[in-house]
Amino acid sequence: MIIERVDLYHLRMPLVSAFETSFGRIQSRHCLLLVVRSGDLLGYGECAADRLPGYSYETTGTAWHILAEFIVPMILGKDLSNPADIHRFTAHVRGHPLAKAGLELALWDLFGKLEGRALVEMLGGQRRQVEVGVSVGLQASPQRLVHVVGDYLDQGYRRIKIKIKPGRDVKDALAVRRAFPDIRLQVDANSAYTLETAVRLKPMDDLGLLLIEQPLAEDDLWDHSRLQAELSTPVCLDESILSARHARQALEMGACRVINIKPGRVGGLSQAVEIHDLCSSRGVPVWCGGMLETGVGRAANLALASLPGFSLPGDISASDRYYKEDITYQRFVLNPDSTITVPSGPGLGVNIDPAALKSYTLNRLTLPG
Ligand code: OSB
Ligand code: MG
After folding, report:
1. Does the Cβ of 238 fall within 6 Å of ligand 1?
2. I want to staple 225 with a disulfide (CB 3.0 to 4.6 A). Which of 125, 153, 255, 325 is the partner?
3. pLDDT 10s digit of each residue in the chain, 369 long?
4. Considering only CA atoms, which residue is closest to atom 5 of ligand 1?
5. For residue 212, what are the β-bridge partners?
6. Per-residue CA distances from 156 to 50, 204, 337 (Å)
7. What torsion do the CA atoms of 90, 91, 96, 102 make, to the nearest 10 degrees?
8. Which of 51, 210, 292 should be mutated for ligand 1, with most atoms under 8 A from CB?
């Protein structure tokens, strides 16, 4: 299939409530929407880079640059036979997985529509509903956190993740655990500790947590292996795992016992499936992380999370946890059993609301120009 045209949109989506992590607080989520065209068919993809380089060095600005100047020109006019083909054409673009993943996703949507197949089927997904949880940002106080967590539990979420940082860790987690002794609870530090400061996390071991996510620096597999040796709670890696090779090395080193798979962070769904397969073959549980996606990225995460190795609930909450209005007509809702239904239409199975898209667009570029 020949890619004739690619449109980039820089979006700013207001969040229903501010989201705070160890690297910062945001009121609006920036991202890029990619639209690829072949004949009459359009494929949509989301690049999950944010405005600030807090989670990743990539930003909406760097992704725009690398896509417009390098990646998109490398595939325009090329005949692709599957979505992962873009990695052949862009093999000499170092890094920038979030940018590559956005384009790969648009191609999955395009090929799905061409073949009349849903993404879940193309990836080998096996569930119609996937178990989900909610990721709760840092709050003003532990009491406030308990209140916010209680609200999400009332809405039906059965797995809670709380964000932590030095000074806001054991007390916060203990307050939630005391208020809700039986819930499935996990924490995410987004790299806020060093091996030295992580001694503060030792008491977490007594809270019956599912996992402790990314306590140390993203480029530090080795110290994660030393920390994991000190903890009985599984360490889960997010930022550190950018490829199947990293995943294998982390597991061989004992740097983690669980992996958070985000299609964006690992350069796309094809590599996400590879990591899933590797972990499945070694009996390592994985779950699907989130990046506050719009309906476009959310649809993809749901399809991915339906693969059999995703044995822990994903950070794939209902649309209303993030946005009052989305760029897709489809809104994802929480079923009473803390699951969300995987879309079943061709490709991503979502349709773009042009008026909503227009109202959140800050900048747009058509290639070739
Ligand atoms: O570390 O998992 C993370 C959001 C943006 C960037 C990084 C992370 C997150 C979340 C939110 O935790 C997950 C979601 O609900 O989309
Ligand atoms: Mg994380």
Report:
1. yes
2. 255
3. 999 999 999 999 999 999 999 999 999 999 999 999 999 999 999 999 999 999 999 999 999 999 999 999 999 999 999 999 999 999 999 999 999 999 999 999 999 999 999 999 999 999 999 999 999 999 999 999 999 999 999 999 999 999 999 999 999 999 999 999 999 999 999 999 999 999 999 999 999 999 999 999 999 999 999 999 999 999 999 999 999 999 999 999 999 999 999 999 999 999 999 999 999 999 999 999 999 999 999 999 999 999 999 999 999 999 999 999 999 999 999 999 999 999 999 999 999 999 999 999 999 999 998
4. 291
5. 187, 235
6. 29, 25, 7
7. 40
8. 292
Class assignment of domain 121-341? alpha beta
Ligand 2 centre distance from Cα of residue 361 (Å): 27
Nearest ligand atom owner, CA of 54: 1
Distance 23 CA to ligand 1 centre (A): 11
Domain ranges of the chain: 5-116+350-368, 121-341
- Looking at the CA of 162, name the nearest ligand: 1
Which of these, 195, 194, 144, lies nearest to 171 by C-alpha position?
144
113 is catalytic: no
Q: Is 100 noted as a catalytic residue in this protein?
A: no
Give dist(CA 196, CA 143) in Å, integer.
28
